[in-house]
Every structure is written in C-alpha cells, then in structure tokens.
Protein: adenylate cyclase
Organism: Ruegeria atlantica
Amino acid sequence: MLKHIVDSENPIDDGKIRRKMQVVNVAAFIASLGFGFTAFYQFQLGPDWRYLAWVNFGLGFAALLTMTLDRFGLEVKVAYFTVWLFLFLAHDISVGKNGEDHLVLLVGPPLLFYFLGAAYWRWITLITILSAALFIYISLVVPLHIPPGETIWDIIAQSYQDGFVRQPQDVIFIVLILGIVSALFFTSYSANAAIDRYEDALEKEFAVSERLINVLLPSRIAKRIKAHPDRLIAERIDDATILFSDLSGFSEFAAANGARATVKLLGSVFSAFDELVLSYKLEKIKTIGDSYMVAGGLDPSVKERQPDSVRMAALAIDMIATVERVTDNLHPKVSLRVGIHKGPVIAGVIGGDKPFFDVWGDTVNIASRMESTGEPGRVQISPEVRDEVAEYVDCERREVINIKGNGEIQPYWLLKVHDKPATSHSSERLIKG
C-alpha cells in the first residue's frame, strides 16, 4: 500500500538515502533520550507517577526502534517515526494541550521533505492535510487541562453534543493556521525541489569527472590522485614492457579520403585496441596521431598466468589482425607496424588541470625504435623481450640494426605466440610474414 501512496518516479540515490536515514536516526535517538530521562525522573517521584513513567519509557523505546529499520528502506523508517510521533501526541494531549506539543503538527510534516525529498510530495501532502486538521481540532476542542475525573474522550464527546458551536474568531484562527501550513508546505517543497535539482546536477558532474579521470589515468593512479590530489605521483618500474604501434600508409589514406573517413578509421581501430588492452590486463598509455602506446608490468597487483611480455606479444598479433580486418576494403592500403622492448622505466603523472600519465626512459626510446625500424604487418621485438618470451613464441632473427645512443641491437620478428610454453601448440596466434 505504501508504494502506491509514495511517488517514486524520481528515486533517491543510495548516497542520499544513507544521509537521510542518518538524520532520522539522530532525531529518533534524541527523542528516545528525552523520554528516557523523563521516565527515570518520574520513577523517582513515587508510585503516583509510575504509570506515566512506564508510558514515557515505552515511547522512548519505540523511538529507539526506528534506528533498526534501515534494512526496510527510508520510506518505512520515516512512516514508522511519523506513526510514533502521532502516538506521542495522542498520549500528550490526553492530559490537556498545556504542553503545546501539538505545535509539532504544524512544522512536522514539511520536515518530511528534508527526509524524503520533493519527489514524495503526494505522501507528504496527505500527512500535512491530516496534521493540519488534527491541529485545528485539538486547538479548538481540547482544553489546556483535563478536569479531574474526566478524560479526553469525555471532552471530545461533549464537543459532539454541543454541535461544534464556535465563535467568529475561530474562523479567523482556522484560516490563519491553513495559511501558515500552506506557507510552510510550499516553502519546504520549493527548497527541497531546488536542493534535489542541484544535487542531481552535482552528481552528474561528478560522474562525468569520475569517468574522465578513469579514462585519462589507470584506475590505481586515479585512486591515488583522488586520495591525495596535491601529492606528486612518480615511481620507478624496473621491469616494464613497452609496445609502440603505428599505422603505415595512414597519411596517404587521410589525404585521399578526407576528414570523416580518417576519423572513422582511427575511431574503429583504436576502440578495438582499447578492448584488447583491457582483455590482456595491460595499460594504454597514450595515442599520438596514428600511433598507439601500451605498457605492461606497471601494476604489481596484476597477477596473470603468463608474464606481461607474453601477453604484450599476443596483443601485438591481435592488433595487426584487427587492422587487417578493419582496413580490408580500404584504399590506399593501411597496415600496422609494431615494436616491443622491455626494461626499467619512470612512470608518473604530469599536468595540473589536465593530468596525464606517462612513462619515460631509454626503454621507451628503444621500443619506439623497434616500431620505426620494423615493417608493415609485422612485430619487431628486442632481444630482451625475445629472451623472456622464448618458451611461448616462435621468432625469426633479422639483420642487426643500429640505435642511436644504444649501438647495435639484434632484433627479432615475432611470428607466433602459444598459450602454453614449449611444445604445446593447442592454441596459437600467428602472423604471416
């Protein structure tokens, strides 16, 4: 029944629900403390006060139970606390309205907007109407003190017998109360509707910023930046694997086919690369024009059956196959050239408003040279990579090349990658050289 009364077209997110539940819990705890101290004091006054003491103790315990209703949801918690409030008022006015506690009926319902939000205006409207009617009735019928020997029910019965005859000023009082209730209701509704809109806008902006930072940076780096945004992030990795790739023939294709076809090609190729990198649990570093850079071994928490260099070799073969598939019917012909090297690197985040995660060092330079001195449709790996992946791959030695600053290097063409080491060829990736 409650779900039919409550307007849940704009459900409250989990964060808001937790905050609002905490507010209700605080209110319930304060109420239980108040009733508990009152009951304790009344127990000390003697037997004549025992009944009221037990009633107040029961009301305090009932308020405390509100804090145990989290698993039933915010609506049930607030509904229970509202019912408890009405029971408290019913008990309080049983001895007269001198305590003026029935004033809660005026300010209480609008406070529901702060607990539930403006989306629940239908339910809050119903509670507000009932509360206003009850406040007016109590104000006009219930005396300040119930005379000795009478009960509240005697007073109510007498009012029925008198036919609710009222003075003209009572009409003015009713109009005044309705005006106050209406003002409180619409003010609270407007304020909380604005708060909900602002919170929704902030949450959308936060979601966009979260997505962007996780796209621009590895998740582990993004977490460190969010935890300590002013702290320098720099680390040395002693054994990283770096891959560089470049689209051979891309400049000719761009000149012949125009902007739309060029951007579409890059989008298709790099999107496929992104999925492959994730599947191999490696890290995309950056793209520069038609170049694509990947790193492995940067995250010590990644524990895979195969070393990162083997996964990088398998990635390289899949990348070449992807480009062949995507560009099969394109003209001029576009193919991928790949180079891989491994060794120590420096990794870190640079930039303020636009943070950028990058890696530097001689290892990066050699990996870039492995790519630039390679051939379209082939993967060239350094001897360091070949030594580590030897059990998993088939390689072909090529002529020695000279790299500036590093002298002569004996590179290899990567031909085939096996899922298992040594002689097991049950599943393999192949490049046709």
